[in-house]
Amino acid sequence: MEEILRDKVGMLRERIKSSQDGKALYRELSDLLMRAGKISAGMNILEKSLDLPSDGASPEGKWFFDRGLDFADAYLYEDAVECFQRAMDCGHDTFDAHYCLSGVYKSLDRIKEAEAQCRRALELNPRFAPAYILLGSLLKGPGRLEESVAACKKAVLLDPDCTAAYYDLACYYSLLAKREQSLAAMEMALCKGFNDFEWVLKDPDLESLRQNPEFKLLLQSYRPKSC
Fold it and tell me: Angle of helix 77-89 relative to helix 61-73, nearest 10 degrees?
């Protein structure tokens, strides 16, 4: 496998040397390296590609957005932030760019910035249910759990089959010590297809329900017999 990768890289480098505009080839090489797990090398090639001229034009916002997704997928969050911001500067100022940037900020534990980006995504697309789920998770903290509940309720209104929203509601209600609401939300999550029973049994947000007989019966009624 490594030999095949080396050959492909060698061929691309030779094509770059003989190309009048190697920008697209640098991108291809960067993507090849990243897909192969050579993240540092892919990043270095990407940095070179940003400085290459292309008929006097700068890379388009969508190009930076796609690279931001690549970096985020590789857990290179700081680099992803830079790419998403440059994407917006280049005109890709879309709800998905703000939504993805919010998620990256959350991964960096930059919650205030994440909330601001998430709210901007919802301004641009107020019917995008996943953004409400993300917002609920960002608001989860002292004194803001009711806001988390409200956000997830909006997600459910937009997507009645949204398993993640029902599960998060169960967690927030549990943290608020609202047992009946938590059980009802969990039942809806299970009904809609939630099946990560291993996580349910160790999720700290559900600690208040763990020893509840109704909770145990609910899980047993949906849990596969082999589990």
Answer: 170
